[in-house]
Design brief:
binds S-adenosyl-L-homocysteine, Rossmann fold, 13 helices, OB fold (Dihydrolipoamide Acetyltransferase, E2P), binds iron/sulfur cluster, pyruvate-formate lyase- activating enzyme, 428 residues, globular
């Protein structure tokens, strides 16, 4: 979502006549779009700010945007005086005004969560040269997992209106997008009413987008297990454009830990959802997020995490050491886990997850599938695209261009990508 927000900030400033500085060029304004999810991400901001200071002690105009801005507010400019602007993730449409204020030497801090959404103030999506696009449909979170800052930094759960999303999708497709990834902190909690006043969930939206000519692929992320409706599961069975990939974080395999995390699902209910998803779409690739070392996590709890990984079988995953976040209930809990224990657990978990993703890739060899070419590869003439299961696949790109959907046979698997051989061109 930060990538999406960054693009929209760029478009907003572009519409006001600013142009992007080239790599390594001295910029007049630098916008740091920040993440507060774990301490490491949040601390990185301050080293980035430090690097922007010039030798003579001056600096470009610096705007800190995103969730660190929301969480720390004006404290940021106290700690880093070269920061001129602080703007939260729901207020960045006001950046032009904040820049004008900062240029006048006035304070420019805006961490409001205005009732009228920023989306109503942003310019229409421009033509974009890439075939894949992100589209935020839902923001914020009401789930309040005890470790997580998102409900505080992104605010309450909101769903963008049906018509706005369809319009933005059309603009993206008109501009050249052939694949759209719908984004939300809880994307599958998205709900709105369609043009005829009927209540719709994410599955209804996906079905409407499927009808757009020129849109070949639809993905969505991130989903919460509790909002995994049967309608959405069914969409995986019968919407051809909906790719067979589901990112469904579980965090822990121990129901006791899940309760302490306030996840409101259990190990069993998660596994039951995975079984229904696989019934609907047997070849679906499942990915997940994991936290090790949540306060009070015992060896047995951690073993439960390893065993849910074995039972589920992940194609890909993100795993993290628990990071205590200011203002969250878990940060105040007893039984914080020592760093060495967390490190050891993370290593064991990551080794198992790496083994699984390699096994998933190896099992794909011999399959024929379409890949959407997205970028050039490292070797001359090589083009890289994504398989339906979100694997990177490189092919000899002769006769093809970025944006082509090409049918390939997957012929070999490396640790991070697969090699494909063209069978025939599916669509140009
Ligand atoms: N809404 C999504 C994920 C949002 S945050 C969900 O509920 O699944 C992305 C991931 O960061 C989470 O899934 C979690 O694994 C991780 N995360 C969030 N807070 C964390 C913390 N305090 N320490 C470590 N990892 C954390
Ligand atoms: Fe954070 Fe996701 Fe839990 Fe919401 S559901 S509080 S975003 S981890």
């Amino acid at each position: 979502m930060n990538v999406y927000d960054g693009e929209r900030i760029g478009e907003l400033l572009g519409a006001r006549g600013l142009t992007a500085a080239g790599e390594g060029e001295d910029a007049d304004l630098v916008v740091l779009n920040t993440c507060h999810i774990r301490e490491k991400a949040a601390e990185k901001v301050y080293s980035d700010i430090g690097r922007l200071n010039r030798k003579d002690g001056s600096s470009p105009m610096i705007a800190v945007a995103g969730c660190v801005a929301q969480a720390e507010g004006e404290e940021i400019s106290r700690r880093a005086p070269s920061v001129d602007i602080v703007v939260g993730p729901q207020a960045y449409h006001r950046l032009p005004d904040l820049i004008a204020r900062a240029a006048r030497g006035e304070a420019a801090v805006d961490t409001d969560m205005p009732a009228i959404s920023k989306f109503d103030h942003l310019p229409r999506r421009p033509t974009q040269p890439r075939p894949t696009a992100f589209l935020s449909v839902q923001e914020g979170c009401d789930k309040f997992c005890t470790y997580c800052v998102v409900p505080y930094t992104r605010g309450a759960e909101i769903s963008r209106p049906w018509g706005d999303i369809i319009d933005e999708a059309k603009a993206l497709v008109d501009g050249g997008a052939r694949e759209i990834t719908l984004l939300g902190q809880n994307v599958n909690a998205w709900t709105s009413v369609d043009d005829s006043g009927r209540k719709q969930g994410l599955d209804g939206l996906i079905r409407a987008l499927d009808a757009l000519t020129g849109l070949e692929r639809i993905r969505y992320t991130t989903s919460h297990p509790n909002d995994m409706t049967q309608g959405l599961i069914d969409a995986h069975a019968d919407v051809a454009a909906l790719m067979p990939y589901l990112h469904l974080p579980v965090q822990s395999g121990s129901s006791r830990m899940l309760k302490a995390m306030n996840r409101s699902h259990s190990r069993e209910s998660y596994l039951e959802i995975i079984a229904r998803v696989r019934q609907a779409r047997p070849d679906i690739a499942i990915s997940g997020d994991f936290i090790v070392g949540f306060p009070g996590e015992s060896d047995a709890d951690f073993e439960d995490t390893l065993s849910i990984v074995r039972e589920t079988g992940y194609a890909a995953a993100f795993s993290f050491k628990y990071s205590p976040r200011p203002g969250t209930p878990a940060a105040e809990m007893d039984d914080q886990i020592p760093a060495e224990v967390m490190n050891e657990r993370l290593q064991r978990l990551q080794a198992l997850l790496a083994e699984q993703s390699q096994a998933f890739n190896a099992a794909s060899v011999g399959k024929t599938c379409a890949i959407m070419l997205e970028r050039t590869g490292r070797k001359p003439g090589q083009l890289i695209g994504k398989s339906p299961w979100l694997q990177s696949v490189h092919i000899d790109g002769a006769g093809h261009a970025i944006g082509d959907l090409v049918e390939v046979e997957l012929v070999s698997a490396g640790p991070n990508s697969l090699a494909g051989v063209k069978t025939r061109k599916v669509a140009a």
